[in-house]
Amino acid sequence: MTTSNNIEPKVASDHVQLVHPAVKQPLVSHALTGHSSAPGRSYRLAESPRHIPSPIDFDGLSFPSIGARERREDTEESRAARIEKISGAVRTILECIGEDPNREGLLKTPERYAKALMFFSKGYEESVTHLMNKALFQEDHDEMVIVKNIDVFSLCEHHMVPFTGKIHIGYIPKNGKVVGLSKIARLAEMFSRRLQVQERLTKQVAMALQELLDPQGVAVVMEASHFCMVMRGVQKPGSQTITSSMFGVFRDQSKTREEFLSLIRRSGI
Amino acid sequence: MSDSQPNSTSDHLELAQPTARQALLNHALARNTGNSPSTERSYLAPDYRINSPIAFDGLSFPSVGARDRREDTEASRAARITTIAGAVRTILESIGEDPDREGLLKTPERYAKALMFFSKGYEESVTHLMNQALFQEDHDEMVIVKNIDVFSLCEHHMVPFTGKIHIGYIPRSGKVVGLSKIARLAEMFSRRLQVQERLTKQVAMALQELLDPLGVAVVMEASHFCMVMRGVQKPGSQTITSSMFGCFRSHAKTREEFLSLIRNQ
C-alpha cells in the first residue's frame, strides 16, 4: 500500500488518509472503480497495475458495488423485497411519462423490468473464484491465446441504456499456465453485467485476467455501439466506440500488440 | 354495417364514412387493442366515439396521460423529471449500487430525460407532423421508403428494440405525401412503449387515414434486446412483422412486388 503513496503527486488532497482498516479501501484509482473514496479528489490517470492492490477481493468479488455483498446474501424474501421496491419505482415512472400502468400490456411490466434489471446488474455479486471453477491448467504453450468476438451487453451507467458489442481478449501464458477458454468469456460477461463505462469495463477485464493468470501479457479490445448515442442525443446509428487495455508484453512490445490486433481483425479464419 | 364495436350508438356518428373503410378500421381496432373489445376504454380507442386512428386534436392512439403531458408547462415538466429521478434513485439503491458515486450522481436525471425522449411519440400531433405536406402528382405507382431506422421501447421489459421499417403505398388520384413525413410517422409511433406488431399496424393505419391511398404496406424487422440481453439470449434473431391494407392485402402480385423491392440490395 505504501508503494502507491510514493508515486502519487504531491497535492493538497493527498493528506486525506483512507483510514478504516476494517473496510477494504478502494485504493485503486477512481478511474478503475468509479467509486471515489474522497469526494474532493481530482481525477487521476489510471496507475499501472503493479501499484494497485489486487482487483480480486478476499471473497472473490471484483470491484463490487457498495451493496453487492448485501445483495449476495439475499434470502428469497429480501430478493422479493428488492423486486417489489423496484416495481413500485417503475410504476411511478410509467405514470410520470403519461402511460397507464393498468393497461393490459403494462400490468406486469414493473416486475418484469425489475427482474430484467437485477439480471443486468448481476455481475456485481459474482465471485471470480467461483466462476473460474479451478479451470487453470498446465500446458506446454507459450504463445498467444485469443478468444475473440465475445458478445457483451452492458448498461451505460450514465443513462441506464444498453450498450452492446464484441470484446476480444488475448493473453500469453507464463510457465504454461493456461485458463479454460470459456472462463475468459465468463469474466467478460461478469464485468459487463453492471452499470458500466466502456473504458472501465475493458480495464477491469484485463486486470482480473492479469491477476488470475499472471501471464506474460494481457490484451483486451472492445468495440461497442452505445444506444444512449444511437437512440437519443446525437443519434448516430453507425458509430462504434473502441477501447483497449494492454498489460505486460502487449504494452511493452509493439510487435506483439500488432500481432494481436491483426489476429482479431482477420475474419473467417 | 359491421358491429364489432359494443356501443352501437357510435354507428350513427359515422354515416359520412365509407362503410368498407369503417369495417376495416373496426376490425383492426377490435383485433389490435391491448384490452378485450368489451372494455369501455380500450387502449387503441380511448374515446370510443371516435374510430379514426387520428383523434380530433391530431394525436394518434395517445396514452392515457398524453394530453396532460402535452399541456405541460416548464414547471410541471420539471416536476415529472424530478419524480422519475427519485424513482430511479430508489432503483439504483435496490440493485445494490451507490447512487452517490461520481458516475451515477446525475444518472437519475439523465435517465428521466432519456425516458421522456423515448416516450415523446405519445404527445406528437399527426397534423402538426404532416405540416401540410400533401401534394398532387401525376403518379399512381408504388412509392416506398425503406430502411428507416426505428428505435422503440418494449412495453413488457422497457428494454429497447431496434430495427428497420419499410413503408410503401400506392397513391390514389395522385395524392402523394412528402417522403420525410413517412419516416416521421414511423418515428412518432416508435417513440413509445410498444409492441412490434402494434407499431407496424399503427403506422399503416395512420398512413391509410392520412392519404386514403389504394393500399399501404409496412414491414418491420427488429432485434429485441429483451431477447438478446436476457432471457433466452439469442443475439442473431430478428422479429419481422407486417401490415398490409388495400390493394396490398387483396392483390398478391402487388404485395410480392413490394416485398421484392424492399429485399433487393
Low-confidence stretches of chain A: 1-31, 36-47
| DSSP strand count of chain A | 7
State the helical fraction of chain A: 25-40%
What's the assembly state of these chains?
homodimer
Biggest sheet details of chain A: 5 strands, mixed
Q: Can you walk me through this structure?
A:
- The structure is a homodimer.
- With 269 residues, chain A is an alpha+beta fold.
- Chain A contains eleven helices and seven strands.
- In chain A, the strands form two sheets. The first copy, chain A, has a five-stranded mixed β-sheet, with helices on both faces.
- In chain A, strand 2 and strand 3 form a beta hairpin.
- The radius of gyration of chain A is 21 Å and the shape is globular.
- The termini of chain A are far apart.
Summarize the helices and strands and which ones pair or pack:
2 copies of one chain form a homodimer.
Chain A lengths: L1 H6 L22 H4 L34 H5 L3 H21 L12 H12 L7 H5 L3 E3 L6 E12 L5 E11 L4 E3 L1 H12 L2 E2 L1 H16 L3 E10 H4 L10 E8 H4 L1 H12 L4
Parallel strand pairs in A: 2-5
Antiparallel strand pairs in A: 1-4, 2-3, 3-6, 6-7
Protein name (chain B): GTP cyclohydrolase 1
EC number (chain B): 3.5.4.16
GO molecular function (chain B): GTP binding; GTP cyclohydrolase I activity; zinc ion binding
